[in-house]
Amino acid sequence: MRAQLSLALAALLASTGAARAGATRCWVDRGVVVVPAAFGDLAGDYILDLASPKSVLHVDVALGAGIVTPQATATLRVAGESIPMTFSVASLDARSLGLPSTIEGLIGADALAGRVVDIRFDPCRIRVSGARPPRFHAVASLPITMLDGVPTIAATVSDGRTARAGRFAIDTGTAAVRLSSDVAALSRPAPKGVDPDSRLSPPGRLDALGLAGAARRRLPSALADDLPAGLMGAIGTAAWSRYDVRIDLQRGRLELARPGGGVSARRPSRSAGS
User: Which of 51, 60, 116, 209 could disulfide-pair with 169, CB 3.0 to 4.6 Å?
Assistant: First the structure.
């Protein structure tokens, strides 16, 4: 049985928060949001990870398609949107091994810049909108700040003794609340074979996450050493799955709605005389 470890904040930093029309089916496995998409002719399953600033084509897929350059340019088609994109070519084995599907690539925040992303978790549905997204009935809204190409929000974390407030990436590629190894550590050494940075099998539990005026307790957690400077961590899907989520990269807002109550019918077009 995998040991359950609590995640303690480091003391070295002193303390000072049924599908709608137009939606596309997605699926969530071990907290990872996966969407059907196509990059050029390469159609299949892609990880959706807004905490990743750059989109990536899996190197094995690229080589199989005869792509031997470090980047590839094509049109990304996802959730009804067609987006001219350049993907980096790199291995995604660390992100995809253990998922029950072949992963073609990873869709990052760069692909969705200036767009609105709606996610419903149960059943999993995703919608990407351009200029005219449908209305969204939010019960909470937080401002998004872009940091090194990653959408971030303010939140608070606590290990039961110490609370820390800071900026966190909006993460859709893991269930975990991932905390920078500069500000947190596991409360005791991880057992042999347990990866403290694991996205797919987060080894810890965070005592509390304060977000949008509510507290979530005992969320899966892990450490992270790949976050941009200035980020305390990244908040994964275990925190988001109780809501319908809108990540509005047009207006810079994260909006949260009750499950099944977020998106309404698309706004009607205005008549010529209106």
Answer: 51
